[in-house]
């Protein structure tokens, strides 16, 4: 079956993660994504290794695993946009595109005549999504922005890490470039919204998307708490500011997570733990009371949880409909029966390496399923084919 975005043409001028994450998702949904890369170098992440992808013989290919995570379902065209010929070729491609995606610094593409106004003049229906660190306006607009910097500046690191006073306390970034990933998702949402607007009005438009804006927007309940009280939340490790117990606990052989979200779940946990009296204790019987008496309750729970293994607790608490779970390393994630049942590990056929592993798109459609048609491309692998299909040119383009 055709993908949901079958027939959509996306010209991807972005690199690293936020932009490529968005264009990969569009490609998963069926769009024809053309990735423009620098001749001889390509996307920066091609060399962000080790680790490297292995070929069919188990040998390193010098193709970084990082690049593979965000570049399937794309075709690569090598164009030097610093030359007049390269700029002209990109404009030809943009004239045929539905979407242009880029993450250059503010004003960076205007020098080449590849900014929105220039391309809009030749393709008024164009959706042009620009991803920057800080947006097109404001005192920081000219600055380069990277995920790590934004996690610090945007407040996420002030909320992440062990509490003040504990061993190892201090600000901590998230273990993946979460701001880049979230920005890629917001970019995809924005592009789809703009396409629907074009469907009803015939008009293209410009999308100004900033990593900092995304980071602040994603502060969610923590931002709402601050705006309501004027008090800045502080790091709490794995504990939750307004739900108790909702954190990690030690077991006889490791750790587990309790994610108790209501009083009924807490009562069932207490009974399973052999302490039904906790559920009727006025200090613990309701969530607001448990939050107020966190310092008393958590040590009591820790004394109880160390009496069984993680597996024993999970089996017991799942039978009582108490949300709990292990803290898995990635080798355990990909052998988890639910992860395997959902097919979250995929292998995409590669014309040079045999196949490359990856993680499935989480979207499940009943009528227009996601497909994995193209492994992450070699640099410039499709230059001639793209020019033939998009521009109907049979000659070598550059």
Layout of helices and strands, plus pairs?
Blueprint (H helix, E strand, L loop, with lengths): L8 E4 L5 H11 L3 E6 L14 E3 L5 E5 H4 L5 E5 L5 H13 L2 E4 L13 H7 L4 E6 L14 H7 L2 H4 L18 H24 L3 E6 H7 L2 H10 L16 E5 L4 E5 L3 H10 L4 H4 L6 H6 L1 H12 L4 H10 L4 E2 L4 H4 L3 H5 L3 E6 L3 E6 L23 H9 L7
Parallel strand pairs: 1-2, 1-6, 2-5, 6-7, 7-8
Antiparallel strand pairs: 3-4, 9-10, 10-11, 12-13
Helix pairs in contact: 1-7, 7-8
Describe the structure.
- Keywords: Transferase.
- It comes from Vitreoscilla filiformis.
- It is a single chain.
- By secondary structure, the chain is an alpha/beta fold.
- The protein folds into 2 domains: 9-218 and 339-391, Rossmann fold (3-Layer(aba) Sandwich); 246-328, formyl-coa transferase, domain 3.
- It is built from 17 helices and 13 strands.
- The protein has helices at residues 18-28, 65-68, 84-96, 116-122, 147-153, 156-159, 178-201, 211-217, 220-229, 263-272, 277-280, 287-292, 294-305, 310-319, 330-333, 337-341, 383-391; strands spanning 9-12, 32-37, 52-54, 60-64, 74-78, 99-102, 127-132, 205-210, 246-250, 255-259, 324-325, 345-350, 354-359.
- The chain has a 6-stranded parallel β-sheet with strand order 5-2-1-6-7-8, with helices on both faces. It has a 3-stranded antiparallel β-sheet with strand order 9-10-11, covered by helices on one side.
- It is elongated, with a radius of gyration of 25 Å.
- The protein starts with 8 loop residues before the first strand and ends in a 7-residue tail after the last helix.
- The relative contact order is 0.14.
- The model has no long low-confidence stretch (mean pLDDT 95).
């Amino acid at each position: 079956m055709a993908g949901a975005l079958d027939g959509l043409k996306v010209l991807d001028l972005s690199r690293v993660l936020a932009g490529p994450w968005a264009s990969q998702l569009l490609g998963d949904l069926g769009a024809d994504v053309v990735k423009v890369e620098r001749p001889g170098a390509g996307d920066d992440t091609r060399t962000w290794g080790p680790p490297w992808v292995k070929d069919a013989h188990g040998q390193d290919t010098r193709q970084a695993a990082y690049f593979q995570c965000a570049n399937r379902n794309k075709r690569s065209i090598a164009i030097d946009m610093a030359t007049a010929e390269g700029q002209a070729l990109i404009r030809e491609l943009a004239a045929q595109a539905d979407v242009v995606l880029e993450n250059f610094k503010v004003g960076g593409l205007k020098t080449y005549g590849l900014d929105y106004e220039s391309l809009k003049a030749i393709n008024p229906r164009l959706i042009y999504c620009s991803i920057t660190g800080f947006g097109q306006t404001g005192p920081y607009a000219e600055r380069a922005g990277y995920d790590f910097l934004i996690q610090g500046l945007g407040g996420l690191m002030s909320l992440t890490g062990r509490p003040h006073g504990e061993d190892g306390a201090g600000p901590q970034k998230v273990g993946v470039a979460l701001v880049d990933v979230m920005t890629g998702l917001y970019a995809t949402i924005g592009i789809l919204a703009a396409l629907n607007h074009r469907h009803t009005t015939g008009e293209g438009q410009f999308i100004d998307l900033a990593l900092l804006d995304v980071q602040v927007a994603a502060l969610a309940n923590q931002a709402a708490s601050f705006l309501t009280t004027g008090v800045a939340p502080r790091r709490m490790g794995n504990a939750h500011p307004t739900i108790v117990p909702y954190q990690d606990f030690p077991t006889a052989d490791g750790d587990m997570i309790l994610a108790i979200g209501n009083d009924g779940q807490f009562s069932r946990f207490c009974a399973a733990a052999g302490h039904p009296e906790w559920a009727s204790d006025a200090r613990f019987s309701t969530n607001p009371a448990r939050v107020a008496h966190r310092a008393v309750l958590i040590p009591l729970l820790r004394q109880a949880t160390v009496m069984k293994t993680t597996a024993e607790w999970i089996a017991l608490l799942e039978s009582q409909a108490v949300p709990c779970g292990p803290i898995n390393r990635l080798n355990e994630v990909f052998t988890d029966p639910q992860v395997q049942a959902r097919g979250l590990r995929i292998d995409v056929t590669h014309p040079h390496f045999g196949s490359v592993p990856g993680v499935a798109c989480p979207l499940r459609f009943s009528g227009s399923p996601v497909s994995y048609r193209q492994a992450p491309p070699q640099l410039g692998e499709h230059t001639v084919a793209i020019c033939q299909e998009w521009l109907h040119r049979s000659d070598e383009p550059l």
